[in-house]
Amino acid sequence: MRIATFNAQNIFSRPWAMSHDNHSVGQPVLDDMAELSSLFKKQTYTATVKARIETLVDKYQLLNRSLDPAQRQLILREVRGRLWIDRQNGDRDWVATGSNDFLAWLELATVAIDDRAIDNTARVIAAVDADIQLLNEIENRSTLQRFHDDVYLQMDTVDGAAADPQAYLHLLLMDGNDARGIDVALMSRVPVSGMRSHIERLRAPGKPLFARDCAMFVFDMPDGERMVMLGNHFSSKGSDVSGKRRREQSEEVARLVNEALAWTPYVCVCGDLNEPPSDGHMPQLLNHPQLKDVMSMPQYTDPFPGTYKTAGKAGGSDSTKLAYILLSTALQAKVQAVGIERRGYVSTKWEPFSEITDQLNSGPPADRTREKERVQASDHYCLWVDLNF
Q1: Half-sphere exposure for 303 (CA within 13 Å, toward CB)
Q2: 120: which residues sit within 8 A by CB, 6+ positions away?
Q3: Neighbour count for residue 223 (Cβ, 10 Å)
Q4: The pLDDT value given to residue 133
Q5: Distance between CA atoms of residues 212 and 274, nearest Å
């Protein structure tokens, strides 16, 4: 039986602010969105608050009805009231005095993902052919179903060879805390007997602990036991520079592992934890006495230590390792092989799928770079482990 985890980075559309290799491009938009959302909730709009609201609304042209949607980074959804009245002479007369007068929320504008990239995401999943596939950054369940039926099952070749993708009977996703449509999802051929969300775990009043979710799935295994999978996508370094939230998230997951171990020996933690082991912010989880990372086991023979972008140097540091599959002691004894599928990402360190190579143009380097970003599946890789039951 194969278990895999893969950050697919959305499958049909992706927020504009998250569509850049460099976090410094999109992070200011996310920061401005959070600030403006907070300002809208103020009970009283003081002169200082009004000035800052005007600055941010104008910056993103949120009230410009004629702006082409393709040029937007943020979208303002107005429900009740209005902020101000614009006069022909350029003056503004404020109408709203506080949150009681104005109700609205902000959304991130999205951009469509190139259909070749969607195909290559499906190629990664088909090449791995996991029985249980955890996915990060999936828009919603209906989108996952459409991707499975209309893209994955229609895949005709993988690396030039004829493909015969096998259907997944269970396609599951619970809405998480992130409004950007980057949820934790599951595709499984193994019967699922239960699922639970942990989105309501709080680190402070009104502040969710998990940036997305710690999604719990329970499987009926071939030997009659049940297995608990805790699927995660921890806070990124862009939003959690100090690592404090990742530490809190890992501590809670470690506690959930202990709860699960009280009723089954089969426990698996997987997903994008957004931090390499060497950063040291997740000791309670990564050093849990009952858990082991499959990439630290002798069955992992891949030369590269990373699961993201450059994958690091062979035998070098783990600075690009973000994906994990952590297995309990009873599952560790069943490990047959561990591997990672990197061919959906273009690199000189390995040969990408032949379909990707065929899709790359032969123009100037700048054009080839843009084309690479448009056609590759994700800049994360799919990590997998084979277990013998």
Answers
A1: 5
A2: 344, 353, 355, 356, 375, 376, 377
A3: 9
A4: 98
A5: 12
